[in-house]
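Question (not urgent): is this output format expected?
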Amino acid sequence: SSDLAAEKRQDLKLLSDEIQKFEELFQQKFQEFEEEQKKWASELDSLEKHRQGLDTGVGKGLEEAEQAQQEAQQKLELVEQQVTEVQRQLWNKLNRIIEAITGHLVAIEVVCLSKMTGSN
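Got this back:
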C-alpha cells in the first residue's frame, strides 16, 4: 500500500512537472504571440500612416491639377475674348474698306456717266 502511495506520489509529481512545463511553454508561446501581435499592429499603423500620407499627397496633387486646369480655362477664355475682339475689329475695318471702295465706285460711275452724257 505504501508502494502504491509512493507510486501515486511519483505519478502526481510527474504530472505536476508536466503541467509546469506546459504552463511555461504556454507562457512562452503567449509572449511570442503578444510580440507578433505588437509587431503587426505597428506594421498596420505604419501602413495606415503611409496611406494617409499618400491620400494627402494625392489630394494635394489633385487640388494642384484642378487649380492648373482652372487657370488654363481662364487663359483660354481670355484668349477667346481677345480673338473675338480682333475678329470684330477686322470685320469693322473690312466693312469700312468695302464702304470706301463702294463710294469710289459710285463716284467713278458718276464721273463716267457725266462724261458720257456730256459728250453726247
